[in-house]
Amino acid sequence: MTEAMISICQHQDWLKCAVNCINFGQYMSQAMWIKDSELLQLPHFTQTEVKHCEKGKGATTAKTIKQYLEIPDENKKGLADMSAEQKADVIKCCSLIPDIGVETKVFTDDDEDAGVYEGDLVSVQVTITRKHLQEGKKAGLVHSPFFPFPKNEAWWVIMGTKEGKIISVEKVIDPSRVVEHKIKFLAPRQGNYEFDLWVKSNAYVGLDQKQTVKLTSLDPSTLPEFVVHPDDAELDDEPTLFEEMLNANVEEDSDSDDDDSDDDDDNNKKGDGIRELSAAERKKEQLLLARKKAAAAAGDEDSDDDSDVEEVYTDDKKKL
């Protein structure tokens, strides 16, 4: 539910509301009211133990969870009336609560010029170091005994403008000891800018860190003129591996087309000599032959009739 609320805030560009939603998720995970002391996150702590920790002055006095974690275990207040097992629970919980360090770095991908110019793709690298973990160790579940489900440790990284506009809101779930997270955005117009950056826990109250990210955006017209080196120009003119493969395939296709045309010419030449007649051609030849035979037969009958006529005519003439 909390993440859905944060997503709506991000869509509507509500920076302050998104931060408050994350705060709400922290208090809900620890089953606390927003006015409760941060020390109530510790096991077996009540208002009595909280007052004992806040009483007095000196290095052993703590009003926040960060202050309490910095006190050596043997000097921590609020444990006097607890059993040995309860004291062990408090000390164990203090070792699990994360102690983080946050570093930021602003840069662009241009190796030749370290400046940031209007329209450049700017990267803000946020490095989160879990100082309470040893090398090679990873974060596990958070201490939230009243939350109905197991919850893994994660951190919200929020960046916004002083005017309350959101640049980025992302949840970092990597459990490694050192985590690097990058925020990318386009550099604004020429000028000096300051952005607010929060690193907020998804479950603990009082561990959040806030920093100011400064950015100077330069006028792009002041960029030096880019001159292409002659060697680079020659490399650009050379065909790429893909182009070489494509040209080779084209040549093979043209060679195969030439071979096919040669085969067709040879077949045509052979066809000028003796070749087998098709069925239609054979039928046509048979019809022509039948017509010739019929014509020849008709010619013989006509000649017989003429001879008969001549014979009759000669006989009649003799009688006369």
TrEMBL record:
Residues 250-266, 299-313 have a biased composition (Acidic residues). InterPro entries: C2_domain_sf (IPR035892), Ig_E-set (IPR014756), Sec63-dom (IPR004179). Residues 250-320 are annotated as: Disordered. The lineage of its organism: Eukaryota, Sar, Stramenopiles, Ochrophyta, Bacillariophyta. GO terms for molecular function: protein transmembrane transporter activity; RNA binding. This is SEC63 domain-containing protein. Its main location: endoplasmic reticulum. GO terms for cellular component: Sec62/Sec63 complex. Residues 2-213 form the SEC63 domain. One of its GO terms (biological process) is SRP-dependent cotranslational protein targeting to membrane. The keyword Chaperone applies.
